[in-house]
């Protein structure tokens, strides 16, 4: 379940935790934030930003894609 990608009761996540939870790289997350394609982090201080876990989960749910199914190859490629 997507609700379990972060620890229980976790409200905020670092960019590294967000990357691990989404399987996106830190650079991709930053690029998507800049392009408006990913939730923006909240600034907690001069050098501290965090992502809101609920927003990341909502983004994941809205961007979920159904994986393409491979053809049923029971013949061993014949």
Overview of the molecule:
The chain is an alpha+beta fold. Helices cover 35% and strands 14% of the residues. It contains 3 helices and 3 strands, in the order βααββα. The chain has helices at residues 15-22, 26-34, 53-62; strands at 12-13, 42-45, 48-52. The protein has a 3-stranded antiparallel β-sheet. The chain is globular.
SSE order, one letter for each helix or strand: EHHEEH
Structural class: alpha+beta
Instruction: Kindly state the number of beta strands.
Output: 3
Which ranges are low-confidence, i.e. pLDDT below 50, for 5 or more consecutive residues?
67-73
Radius of gyration: 17 Å
- Determine the N-to-C terminus distance: 38 Å
Helix content: 25-40%
Strand composition percent:
5-15%
Q: What spatial order of strands do you see in the largest sheet?
A: 1-3-2
Number of helices: 3
Mean pLDDT over the residues = 82
Shape: globular
Brief overview:
The protein is an alpha+beta fold.
Descriptive keywords:
alpha+beta; three-stranded antiparallel sheet; 3 strands
SSE blueprint:
Blueprint (H helix, E strand, L loop, with lengths): L11 E2 L1 H8 L3 H9 L7 E4 L2 E5 H10 L16
Antiparallel strand pairs: 1-3, 2-3
